[in-house]
Structure formats: C-alpha cells, structure tokens
Design brief:
The N terminus is likely disordered. This protein has a 21-stranded mixed β-sheet. A hairpin with a 2-residue loop joins strand 11 and strand 12. The radius of gyration is 28 Å and the shape is globular. The termini are far apart. It has 514 residues and is an alpha+beta fold. Among the domains are: 162 residues, no CATH class; 97 residues, no CATH class. The chain is 30% helix and 36% strand.
C-alpha cells in the first residue's frame, strides 16, 4: 500500500508506521531497495503503482546481520491487533444489523459489502443457525489410536432451551473395554448413569435438602453454590441470545461515537488493477478503547458473575484461598485492558472503492518507534479472497498473505507468512463446493472432510484427521431427551454407610476392567 500524501492516522491479539510500506518491501525480500522485486501473487496479478520513497539507510545485504526483532515486534503489534479486533467486530456487527447513521454509513456499508461469506462459510451456516435456535442434537463419532491402543467415542448432546433440559449419552471404547454413559439435567436435578461402574443411577436433586454424608464432608455452602451453578446453566440456555444482543448494543454505541474525517486518497490493488480510493480516518485512544472494554466487561459480569461466585465458593469449600483464586474474576476484556495500558493513539483509516473496503491502515507511534498495520482486500471471488496483512515496527516488517483463486468449483487458498526474506506456507485449503469436499494441509498433518448441509441439519465427516483419526459431526434440528432408567443412588441424602458400600461395590465391579 502506498499513499499519494503522508497519512496519519491485544474469544484477542494484534498490530502497525507513518509511511505505508508496499505489500512486499525490501525489508521483507532481504534485497537492496533499488533492486527490490515487485510483489508476486499467483492468484491476483499486479501491485500498487505509487512508490514509497526509499529510506535514508537502505538495506545492505553485505552488512553484518542484526538480531531479529520479530518476537518483540509481534508482542507490541499483538496489542494493536487486539484493539483493532474490537473495532472490527463492532463494524462487522453494525454492518450486519443494517444500522447506518449519517456519520458512519459509508464505512459500514463498505464493510457489509466486503465481509461476505465464501462458499465454505455458506455451507457451514446452517450449523450456527440451528445452535442459536436452542433445540438441537449434536452427535460425535471419533475413531483413532493413542499409545498404540484403539480408541473410539460415540456421543450425543441434546439441548432444549425452552424446556430447560439437556442430556449427554454415548459410549467410549478403549483397549477392548466399552463403557456406556448417560447424563441428564433439568430444573429438578442431575442424573448420571455409568452401568459398567455401578448399576444404579446417580441422582442429585437441586430443591431437596442435602442432609447426608456428602453434606457433612463438603458443607452446605458447597452444595448451595453447586445448586445455583446448575440452575444458572439451565437459564443460560435462553440468556445467551440476550447477552449477544447486549454485546452488540455496546459495540454499536461505541462505534457510533467515533468521529471520522476525510483522509487523502491512496492507490490500492483490486482485482489486479490499481484503483484510487477515498479514505476516512478515525482515532482510537486508550481512553475510548478502555471505556468500550469496560462496558463489554460489565455485560460479561452481568451474565457470568453469579456463576463465577458459585465456582469460587465451591473452590473455597474445597480448601482453596483468595490467593489461589486471585485471577479467577479476570475475563478477556479485563486482560486486554491491562495490555493497552500506555497505548499510543492509533489512527485508523478505511479506504473505500465502489462501496467496498480496499484497505484498512492503522498507524501509531510510541517509545519503541513507528508502528503500522495494513490490511488490503485485493478481491477475487469474494472481496476478501486475497488479503494481505502487513505489520511493521520501526522499519522491521512482515506480511501474512491469504492467496485465493477459484478453479471450476474449487476454492483454493494458501496462507503464507513472509518475514525477514523467508516465505513460510502455514496452510493450504481447498474446498470443492460442488461436491462438498474440504481438504486442509498443514505442517501438523492433513484433514479431509465432506460437508452435507440443509435447513434441517449439518454433517461434517472428516477422514485422515492428522493421519490418525476419523471424526464425524452430525448436527440436526430438534431433540429427543430421555432420562436414565434404574434405581437412584441419591447423593444428597446417602449416609456414610451408603457411600462406603458404594465404593466397595464399584471396586468389585471394576476389578480387572482397566
């Protein structure tokens, strides 16, 4: 990316210099400035036409190598990525909601037109819709090998948020041993059945008095907190949608409060052509980012404070103290607040071409020097199919490239990192959307998958899962939740003798089993 004029401007991480570097610069390629080659993209030809002036001290390949700044740069840039993640989520959420005000509508409309789903995301979308509905069944089948032994798992999770109940049942097979299990929970209590360990069903009832041996050992405070924790989790099935809406409202309000000013035009590449783009700049300060994170943290606490307090109470009843739990209250928003302490002002400029984003450029300066993060959306089948992310700190920079092309019905994507003259392919992803076949290649192994989707469900069948396992996920609308059958061992009222008999019985039943 280069500009015609000088432009100003961490469920979270990130990063950003006053002069914008080209997508591939002499510091990335490791060559002299005057001989730096033009960027090469096998999928989208061309590059930025406006040249960035060479630095006063061009890179000398014969000079003694200097220590790499990569680690320190990524730590500092990580803070910026985290901050930008907040504003990016705000923009995407607001754009998806269709909320446009006169002050921000140009950027929002451009974001909505840019962040459109590709074919893979479209085929996976029914899954998110079904889960959000709150009444679904998720089945998992896993087969593989560990420590030379075969392992297999078949399990099904069913949820009905409206009726406030769920169940998990299935079978685990390992080293020739098969164990069935069945868990069920509603507003009355919790039932667990593991016939291989004990023939009776373990029962625990929230609304009954706990006057047995377990209460003598653990204390009533422990069980009061456990009861509240379980009942809260049942209510959370319905509350999760409201929490998401509250998060969105905070993001909307904070985004709407940002002030945008016109920025000088700049030239970027879209669909292999150089285009002139209008710019709109807003400034993120530590103060306004901190305020937004405070509001997001308040939403989190509103829906999770009781759960956190219950778990802390249970832990204390088990012998832990405040020192052991000192970090327990900290959420992701609080962690990010700590990381932005002393954050410099960040100028964020959105460059727009024909109602879509061409680039987002973030710049700032602190005691370590100039920082910059450039995100260029170079287009393809979707505006984001080819995306270049260039990050830099005080002249040291790297680039993450998402290189995509579509051949016939196959979306092909490579993710490549370029740093200090070295190119590393992080992953290759091919998705044949006509046959619903997905192939992912990484250094850790390969994944082959087929996807079968409809309004009623989604099936993801994976083979060669890192050359060791197969995994099949089946998600469908609706549930058929049943209670475990059998006599009940009531944990809340069982006496000391009952528990000792239980232990002896389990020892007899499992002797020689494992």
């Amino acid at each position: 990316m280069s500009e015609n004029n000088e432009t100003k401007f961490d469920p979270v991480t990130g990063q950003n210099v006053a002069q914008t570097p080209q997508p591939e610069n002499p510091y990335v390629t490791g060559q002299n400035v005057a001989q730096a080659p033009q960027p090469e993209n096998p999928y989208v030809a061309g590059q930025n036409t406006t040249q960035t002036p060479p630095p006063q001290n061009p890179y000398d390949p014969l000079a003694a190598p200097q220590p790499s700044n990569k680690k320190n740069m990524k730590i500092l840039l990580g803070v910026i990525f985290g901050v930008i993640a907040v504003i990016a989520i705000a923009i995407i959420c607001c754009a998806a909601s269709g909320v446009f005000t006169s002050k921000n509508k140009k950027v929002l409309k451009a974001a909505k037109n840019t962040f459109v789903p590709n074919e893979l995301m479209k085929d996976l979308n029914p899954g998110t819709t079904l889960i959000a509905g709150g009444n679904y069944t998720l089945a998992v089948e896993l087969a593989g090998e560990t420590d030379g032994e075969d392992i297999g798992i078949k399990a099904s999770y069913q949820q009905n948020a409206e009726q406030k109940m769920h169940s998990v049942n299935g079978k685990v097979e390992y080293s020739g041993v098969s164990v069935d299990f069945h868990e069920y929970m509603d507003e009355d209590g919790l039932l667990i059945s593991v016939p291989k360990l004990y023939p009776d069903v373990f029962g625990y009832y929230f609304n009954e008095e706990k006057d047995g041996y377990a209460a003598d050992i653990l204390g009533n405070k422990f069980f009061d907190a456990f009861d509240d924790l379980c009942l809260t989790s049942m209510n959370d099935m319905a509350a999760s949608a409201k929490m998401s809406a509250d998060y969105l409202q905070v993001l909307k309000e904070n985004y709407d409060a940002l002030e945008f000013v016109n920025a000088p035009k700049a030239t970027f590449q879209i669909e292999g052509k150089d285009v002139s783009c209008k710019g709109y700049t807003t400034t993120l300060t530590e103060e306004n980012v901190d305020a937004c994170l405070d509001e997001l943290s308040e939403v989190y606490d509103t829906y999770n404070k009781n759960t956190i307090d219950d778990v802390k109470t249970m832990c204390k009843e088990l012998g832990l103290d405040d020192e052991d739990l000192k970090d327990f209250d900290c959420n992701a928003f609080d962690s990010l607040k700590d990381k932005i302490d002393g954050m410099p002002d960040l100028d964020v400029t959105f460059y727009i071409y024909k109602n879509r984003l061409a680039a987002v450029v973030v710049t700032g300066t602190d005691e370590t020097g100039d920082m910059e993060l450039d995100v260029e959306f170079r287009g393809g089948t979707t505006p984001t199919q080819n995306t270049f992310i260039t990050y830099g700190l005080n002249g040291d920079s790297g680039t993450l490239k998402i290189l995509g092309k579509t051949e016939d019905s196959v979306d092909k994507t490579k993710i490549v990192e370029v740093y200090d003259g070295e190119k590393t392919t992080l992953a290759s992803i091919n998705y044949d959307y006509a046959n619903k076949e997905l192939e992912i290649e990484t250094d850790d192994g390969d994944i082959m998958a087929t996807i079968d989707n409809s309004d009623k469900g989604l099936v993801i069948d994976m083979e060669d899962l890192y050359s060791a396992s197969t995994l099949k996920l089946t998600l469908k609308r609706g549930s058929n939740i049943k209670k475990p059958e059998g006599d009940v061992f009531d944990i809340g009222t069982a006496s000391e003798d009952d528990f000792y008999d239980l232990v002896y019985d389990i020892q007899d039943l499992t002797r020689g089993l494992f």
